[in-house]
Amino acid sequence: MRKIMALIGLCMGLALVHSGTTGARGAEQPEIGPETKLPMPRYVSLRSGKVNLRRGPGLDYRIDWVFQRTGMPVRVIDEYGHWRRISDSDDAVGWVYHALLTSRRMALVTEPRLTLRAEPNGAARPTAHAEQGVVAQLLECATTWCRITAGGAEGWVPKQAIWGVDPDEEFGG
């Protein structure tokens, strides 16, 4: 049974890795969602303080998990009708109704204690500290730093210290 489950997991992983399409010159092109025509995967956040994570795309599917935190960042990895398949920072995967998601970019602090800085460099003046698990709004991201705000504090943090943005992603500013 373990071998079958491992094989299923391997096949699912291969499907996700191979989901991109190749252009005329062999360059990897981003996958586009069949329903929204938006890039996939992409980060979004939870709109509500109670979001059911279901086994499949519909109300008849079993609820595997209930998210209870508004603004939590998640990653859309598939679409089917009005349903979005998402994963979270712990790799929990399931389906949620599209209206329970928002395009507002948020980030989850993954380090035990993170220093927010006035400028995007490690020597800049500290502006605040954030504990692991803090959910912050992403304002902009450069090559290796992102500017976030949470609890009235704002500052720059190393990109690898948060979850909710890809390593090569840049926006804002």
Low-confidence stretches: 1-26
Which CATH class of the largest domain? Mainly Beta
Strand order of the largest sheet: 10-9-8-5-11
What is the molecular shape?
A: globular
Our count of helices gives 1
pLDDT average, as an integer?
87
CATH architecture of the largest domain: Roll
Provide the number of structural domains: 2
Please state roughly what percent of the residues sit in beta strands, choosing from under 5%, 5-15%, 15-25%, 25-35%, 35-45% or over 45%: over 45%
What would you call the quaternary organization?
A: single chain
Bin the helical content.
Answer: under 10%
Radius of gyration: 18 Å
Spell out the CATH superfamily of the largest domain.
SH3 Domains
The CATH topology of the largest domain is given as SH3 type barrels
Quote the distance from N terminus to C terminus.
Answer: 51 Å
The largest sheet, given as strand count, sense and whether it forms a barrel, is:
5 strands, antiparallel
Q: Helix-strand pattern, N to C?
A: HEEEEEEEEEEEEEEEEEE
What class, by secondary structure content?
mainly beta
Structure description:
With 173 residues, the chain is mainly β. The chain has 2 domains: 31-104, SH3 Domains (SH3 type barrels, Roll), CATH 2.30.30.40; 107-163, SH3 Domains (SH3 type barrels, Roll). It is built from 1 helix and 18 strands. It has one helix at residues 2-17; strands at 21-22, 28-29, 31-32, 39-40, 42-46, 51-54, 63-67, 73-80, 83-87, 93-97, 101-102, 106-109, 113-117, 126-131, 135-141, 145-150, 153-158, 162-163. A 5-stranded antiparallel sheet has the order 10-9-8-5-11, with no helix packed on it. It has a 5-stranded antiparallel sheet with strand order 17-16-15-12-18, with no helix packed on it. Strand 8 (73-80) and strand 9 form a beta hairpin. It is globular and about 50 Å long. Residues 1-26 have low confidence and may be disordered.
